[in-house]
């Protein structure tokens, strides 16, 4: 059963309010105040503090990106990120956008296996695109995920736990994708490299 958003104030009074950089005690979180209010809250969507709880690492930055994304009507906006550019698909996996990372990796891998140089060009294009639009894409993903969690929440405590568990970052996912990229590029491009005289 969906619950409405607001009320971490009740959690605050109970001493169970979320903590962390930039997360204030007045976060608006769900309570079971009726189906009508639940539907209204779900239609209104998340508030900044909920996005911060979901984002975890660098919460303030991504909450600001989310607010900018909202003002455009949900259109992706340019917001350069050097880590996103350098890590590309591994960065997507790190921010738990695993499906996007998988689709990107499979596309580049397929092109690389057929035409290595085309695959390399696709990888560079993907790196630039992720660097430019990665944070905005994350804002869109976070908004969608928070809405989904909100619609299934039954009480404030589990709602907070689900936000944190579903969001945040995943270093193992980033590491796995990074290793796959290194293996792919090494497999296809190492034989093309000129051999050194002493090898």
Give helix % range: 55-70%
Radius of gyration: 20 Å
State mean pLDDT (0 to 100 scale): 82
Low-confidence stretches: 6-19, 29-35
Portion in strands? under 5%
Helices and strands, in order, run as HHHHHHHHHH
Q: Specify the overall morphology.
A: elongated
SS element count, helices: 10
The structural class is mainly alpha
Outline the biggest β-sheet: none
- Total count of strands: 0
Question: Could you explain the architecture of this structure?
Answer:
This protein has 199 residues and is mostly helical. Helix content is 67%, strand content 0%. The chain has ten helices and no strands. The protein has helices at residues 9-14, 35-44, 48-55, 59-71, 82-87, 89-94, 98-114, 116-152, 156-166, 171-189. Helix 3 packs across helix 4, helix 3 (48-55) packs across helix 8 and helix 3 crosses helix 9. 35% of the residues are buried. Mean pLDDT is 82; it is low at 6-19 and 29-35.
What's a quick, concise take on this entry?
67% of the residues lie in helices and 0% in strands.
């Amino acid at each position: 059963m969906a619950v409405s958003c607001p009320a971490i104030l009740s959690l605050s009074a109970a001493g169970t309010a979320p903590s962390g950089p930039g997360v204030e005690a007045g976060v608006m979180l769900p309570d079971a105040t009726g189906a009508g209010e639940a539907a209204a809250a779900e239609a209104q969507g998340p508030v900044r503090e909920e996005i911060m709880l979901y984002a975890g690492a660098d919460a303030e930055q991504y909450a600001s990106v989310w607010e900018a994304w909202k003002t455009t009507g949900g259109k992706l906006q340019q917001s350069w990120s050097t880590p996103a550019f350098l890590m590309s698909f591994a960065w997507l996996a790190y921010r738990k956008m695993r499906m996007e990372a998988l689709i990107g990796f499979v596309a580049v891998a397929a092109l690389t296996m057929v035409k290595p140089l085309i695959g390399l060009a696709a990888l560079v294009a993907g790196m630039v695109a992720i660097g430019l639009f990665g944070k905005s894409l994350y804002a869109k993903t976070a908004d969608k995920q928070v809405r989904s969690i909100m619609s299934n929440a039954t009480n404030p405590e589990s709602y907070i736990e689900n936000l944190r568990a579903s969001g945040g970052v995943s270093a193992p996912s980033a590491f796995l994708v990074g290793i796959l990229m290194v293996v792919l590029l090494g497999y296809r491009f190492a034989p093309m490299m000129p051999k050194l005289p002493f090898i």
